[in-house]
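<derive_structure_tokens>
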Amino acid sequence: MEQGATNNSEVEDASSYPSPARAWGLVLLLTIAYAVSFVDRQIISLMVSPIKADLQLSDTEISLLLGFAFGLFYTLMGIPLGRAADRYNRRNLIVAGMTLWCLMTAASGLARNFMHLFMARLGIGVGEAALSPAALSMISDSFPPDKRTGPIGFYNSAIYVGSGLAMLLGGAIIQIVSNSPPVNVPFIGELAPWQTTFIVVGTPGLLIALFIAFTREPERKEIMISEDGGAVELSLRDVVKYLWGKRYLYGPVFVGMAVVAVVNFMFLAWIPTLYIRVHAWDVSSIGYAFGIILLIFGPLGIALGARLGDYFAARGDKGGHAKAGFVGSLFMVPGMIFTPVLPSPELALIGLTLIPFGMAFITVNLVTAMLRVTPNQLRGLTYAFFLMVLSLSGTTFGPTLVALITDFVFADEMKIGYSMLIVSLGTAFFSNFAIYKSIGAFRSEKT
């Protein structure tokens, strides 16, 4: 990285950004795309029982499909695709990625064995890895720094809207498909209801990709400039060196969010199965209940979290967004501990509301804080590193740790709630401590 490189954010003015209507139109499309990505990746969690029965899989193999298969290439491709988002046309990158993951979701419906479904999940991970680094970079270039929390929060609400719709619509689609005549595909044969569901869910996103293809790429802002006034060209080594040099800042954020992601993905993956196995609920009932919780309490956590973070920041606290994120981490703890083991399914649902609420509170604030101090040329790759850490921890360890404990410690699939409790107890302290440490790191940072 060149000596004397600076950030030109102070010379940007509001008139150089897109109009509010155009900017928010872009945010809306990208948010819909992000919601679709969560529908496509999470729909499988409602179909664990029929997939397990038809393909004769163990809980551990199911956990690999829920997490590792998706997360492996989502992680591996995140770095090069994040780098591409910093250097090339971000809109085209998103369109290509979305087309791929939608096709791979539909292809999941043609799977006949574990490896077929595993490879389709890999493809979904590759496609979805292209979205968020490019999308958040585009959103940051569409709004002045002091107006970004709202649009970033709106974009991140898709995590809960998409996951909620996966439960709500997924449960309804599964019920409709199960009560409909079998579907026969040439050269494939008769499809099981879970296979038809994948095809039905995977195809609509292609239309959203088409709409995004007609949006305009925003002009890049807050570019690092050298002493001679030119834009700094950064190699991957430069970016890694920059992040390592600020490990006191990025480290607590990455570690805290990584541990929180383990809990988040654990609940997303196994709550439907917990209710079906332990509480004897049917797929549509838990899909409806869990979907409503995600749709209401995720966006509510984002809205209140963003307001609290902006309130702290407006009072001159440079660690204000991180402090608001820490508040969110405290909300999660009771839900993490009590939800998996409460004997009453209705009381457990009340505890479950704290998981998406607290997670949303944390995410909107830590992402806002991180992007605010990250120069433009580094945003895509920095967020790709961020997603890499979250994916390695969340999509891999969240579902799989529970399955390993259930299969090899308890050797009883009815003990899945206690497996979830063990994982929750092991993560609660570390996540809260790391997020708390990030408050001081942001306060010490010069912006």
The first strand starts at residue 6 and ends at 7.
